[in-house]
Each structure stands twice: as structure tokens, then as C-alpha cells.
Amino acid sequence: MENKKDPKFLKLPKFPGGKEAFQEFVKQNLKYPRQAFENKIEGTVYVMYRVDGLGNVIEVQVTKGIGFGCDEEAARVLKLMKFDKAKNRGLRITATMRTRINFKLPKAPEIQFEYKTQTKPKTSGVEPQKKQSGESYQYTIFY
């Protein structure tokens, strides 16, 4: 009989759903700080955090930030996360992990104008017609 060992010595806690779910969670919960938005600040916040044996994010430390409220927002989003429990040989461990959170300003929507001319129909009836130019203008704005 062969004694097969696990190739990884330590099993680290994983976010449920993997990397894509992690990124989606950040995207759904990240709120662009007002101060950063007003000053048009973009960049990447590098964060180191610890996940305890129950999957809770405990200590969050910004290792390289961009300021203007972005560092605090990155820490806030990470503290909302819940990871899968990780046991190593029956023992729960606290793991130190690193990630980066990107702050990119949303693009302003493009506004398109559409110009239409319409001829107003002539009315017939008892009331006298008012002098009309015969054309009206309509603007449609697309977002």
C-alpha cells in the first residue's frame, strides 16, 4: 500500500464559489467613496487580512493604499466576507491572506440626440385656424 500525502501541507480557507464569486461579492458591496469620486481618484488598494478557523475575517490591514476613503472602504468590504472553514489535521487555523481591490470611476453615460420633424395636421371645424409654422421638434435622449 502506498501512503499518499496531500500535496499541500496547509489547507487555506476559501471563499464559497471561488475567485469569480469573490470578485462578484466585492463588485456588489463596494461603494465608491464620495471624497474619492469628487477628486477623481482611481487605483488599487492592497490589503492583508486574517481569516480565523470559523471563516470570519478578523484583522484587516491596508499594505498600500490610495487614500480619499478608498482604504477604509476596501477594509469594510473584506470584513463583510465569510469564508469556508478550513481544518488542518483536525485543527482550525488562522490564515493570513492578501488581495487587491480596484477602484475605477464609472464611465459617464453617452447621450445621443435624435432629431425628428413632424408636420402638424391641419384642423377643420368651427374654430378659425391659428397661424402655425407646420413643423414641431422632438428630442429623444438615449442613455
Mind explaining what this structure looks like?
Strand 1 (43-51) and strand 2 (57-64) form a beta hairpin. It is built from 3 helices and 7 strands, in the order ααββαβββββ. The model has no long low-confidence stretch (mean pLDDT 82). It is of the alpha+beta class and 143 residues long. The longest helix has 12 residues, at 18-29. It has helices at residues 18-29, 34-38, 70-80; strands spanning 43-51, 57-64, 87-88, 91-92, 95-103, 112-119, 135-142. The protein has a domain at 18-103: TonB (TolA/TonB C-terminal domain, 2-Layer Sandwich), CATH 3.30.2420.10. The termini are far apart. It has a 3-stranded antiparallel sheet with strand order 2-1-5, covered by helices on one side. A two-stranded antiparallel sheet has the order 3-4.
Briefly summarize what is shown:
The protein is α+β, with helices and mostly antiparallel strands and 143 residues long.
Strand order of the largest sheet: 2-1-5
Residue-averaged pLDDT, rounded?
82
Quickly give the CATH architecture of the domain at 18-103. 2-Layer Sandwich
- DSSP helical segment count: 3
Number of strands: 7
* Helicity, as a percent range: 10-25%
Radius of gyration over C-alpha positions, nearest whole angstrom: 29 Å
Name the features.
7 strands; alpha+beta; 20% helix; single chain; three-stranded antiparallel β-sheet; TolA/TonB C-terminal domain
